[in-house]
UniProtKB/TrEMBL annotation:
Coiled-coil zones: none
Location of the Magnesium chelatase ChlI-like catalytic domain: 195-400
Species name: Opitutus terrae (strain DSM 11246 / JCM 15787 / PB90-1)
Gene3D superfamilies linked to this entry: 3.30.230.10, P-loop containing nucleotide triphosphate hydrolases
Pfam family, one: Mg_chelatase_C
PANTHER family xrefs: COMPETENCE PROTEIN COMM (PTHR32039:SF7), MAGNESIUM-CHELATASE SUBUNIT CHLI (PTHR32039)
SUPFAM superfamilies on file: P-loop containing nucleoside triphosphate hydrolases, Ribosomal protein S5 domain 2-like
Record-given protein name: Mg chelatase, subunit ChlI
Mg chelatase-related protein C-terminal domain location: 408-504
NCBIfam families: YifB family Mg chelatase-like AAA ATPase
MF term (GO), any: ATP binding
């Protein structure tokens, strides 16, 4: 007898339909045959399924049984299909008599006892089930709670194979999980959570970070060891605005596909902060794998990607960032297929001025030769540096600043100004896909960043003196627009433009 159950396969951060077809009672040697381009984890499902069936009070098939995961050209990976395969076997062997079995979408890993375990990509499956008009979605507990964030589809939590089978036959009733719209307010920070009030001195750096967050601009912090660059970067999430509902769903979808929501690494209502080590590979940073999946830049979508000790990263890893920084998405092609992943992140980078870290420090003597300094700086290419909107120096702190007992301005005060600036941007770009000043298109720059003749001459003079590129010209205007938003000004004025220009001063003074 043939039984068909609907499931799904992850392709990047999206889900595609997979039909689990089970045909039992075939003539021949009693065995289970699994086809449909499965990987090793899928091939091992027969052992888990047989034990789960036995320990749940069901009888494993005693005839030749063929299981096909269709479509055959789509590679299947992971333990997604344990539960649908088990239910398909029960239906094919007439141990499960359920009407309209194909109207449900089902996924889940099975333990040997028959209990269910969560799987990746539940949110993408819920979106697919809603799109296809399925009756409902059956998932393990953690995955079901994640999928319930998608409205318009009934999501049922099944804790075991036995409960899933009894629910489908009507022996028991389960209530669908209530739609769980994401919290629109910031979670209460835990005691000891990083806060800007802990930062001593560094007023110029704090101001530059505030401007960067307000407009979603990339920022490079340059200074000696112990200046507080990493400390400031780790506090950037505390001043970022709460993601709007659409942004949060995109964040959750990516982290769900990567499996981080299962492990509880991602907090709701907080933008992601990713800080990969400088030994990371190109694939780990960009994304990829046999079946292309999200890398660090996609996991930082709508959040922060912090690259500490920037010159220590491999040159190839840094160069792959150039196109994603510009476009906000990355396309990965592999033999298993091609996927486009979102990666609209804010890049925050930190570096020392030289290999020993003390070039220009009045209290420490630099031990580096000019050749060593030039080789160190040349690890960051001009095109990559050109895509970083704000360059800011972080000088070493004085002893008086270190001994200061008064707290700095807290994150709540800075975040209030940032949110006010972001609100102006959302109103400005209400009828477009642009979300921040840093993502403005050329027509939007001409419309919202217009300057009068005097300011135009000022900018031209700065461009000639610093020998900046056309890309830097646009980025100065974007940063000036953000500074004007923080000041509540309708038009860009001279102080706003001058501050934006000074954030490009490191282009020539430090790197060339």
């Amino acid at each position: 007898m043939l039984a068909t159950i609907a499931s799904a396969a992850l392709q990047g951060v999206e889900a595609e339909m997979v039909h689990v077809e089970v045909n039992a009672g075939e003539a021949g040697e009693p065995k289970l045959i699994l086809v449909g381009l499965p990987d090793a984890a899928v091939k091992e499902s027969d052992d888990r399924v047989f034990s789960a069936l036995s320990n749940s009070g069901f009888k494993p098939p005693r005839t030749r049984t063929t299981i096909n995961l269709a479509p055959g050209h789509l590679r299947k990976e992971g333990p997604f299909y344990d539960l649908p395969i088990a239910l398909g076997i029960l239906a094919a062997t007439q141990q499960l008599r359920a009407e309209n079995l194909g109207s449900w979408m089902i996924a889940g890993e099975l333990s040997l006892s028959g209990a269910t375990r969560p799987v990746r990509g539940a949110l993408a499956m819920a979106r697919l089930a809603r799109k296809l008009g399925k009756r409902g979605l059956l998932l393990p507990a953690v995955s079901a709670e994640e999928a319930a964030h998608v409205e318009g589809i009934a999501v049922y939590r099944v804790d075991s194979l036995d409960r899933a089978a009894r629910f489908l036959t009507g022996e028991i009733t389960l209530a669908p999980l209530d739609p769980a719209p994401l919290r629109r307010t910031r979670p209460v920070p835990a005691d000891g959570a990083p806060d800007f009030s802990e930062i001593k001195g560094q007023h110029a750096l704090r101001r530059a970070v505030e401007v960067a967050v307000a407009g979603g601009h990339n920022i490079l912090m340059l200074g000696p060891p112990g200046a507080g660059k990493s400390m400031v970067a780790k506090r950037i999430p505390s001043i970022m605005p709460v993601p709007v509902l659409e942004e949060q769903l995109e964040i959750v979808s990516i982290h769900s596909a990567a499996g981080t929501t299962i492990s509880g690494e991602m907090a709701w209502g907080v933008r992601p902060f990713r800080a990969p080590h400088h030994t990371i590979s190109d694939v780990g940073l960009l994304g990829g794998g046999t079946i292309p999946g999200p890398g660090e830049i996609s996991l930082a979508h709508h959040g922060v990607l912090f690259l500490d000790e920037l010159p220590e990263f491999k040159r190839s890893a840094l160069e792959v960032l150039r196109q994603p920084i510009e476009d906000g998405e990355v396309t990965i092609s592999r033999s298993a297929g091609k996927v486009t992943l979102p990666c609209a992140f804010m890049l925050a980078a930190a570096m020392n001025p030289c290999p020993c870290g003390y070039l220009g420090d009045a209290k420490h003597e630099c031990r580096c030769s000019p050749t060593q300094i030039q080789r160190y700086r040349s690890r960051i290419s001009g095109p990559l540096l050109d895509r970083i909107d704000i360059h800011i120096e972080a000088p070493a702190l004085s002893l008086a600043e270190l001994r200061a007992t008064e707290n700095g301005e807290p994150s709540t005060a800075i975040r209030a100004r940032v949110e006010a600036a972001r609100a102006r941007q959302h109103a400005r770009f209400a009828h477009s896909r642009t979300t921040s000043n840093a993502r403005m298109t050329q027509p939007q720059i001409r419309r919202h960043c217009a300057v009068d003749a005097a300011l135009g001459d000022l900018l031209q003079h700065a461009m000639e003196q610093l020998n900046l590129s056309a890309r830097a010209y646009d980025r100065i205007l974007k940063v000036a627009r953000t500074i004007a938003d923080l000041a509540g000004a309708e038009q860009i004025e001279a102080p706003h433009l001058l501050e934006a220009i000074q954030y490009r001063s490191l282009d020539r003074a430090v790197f060339y």
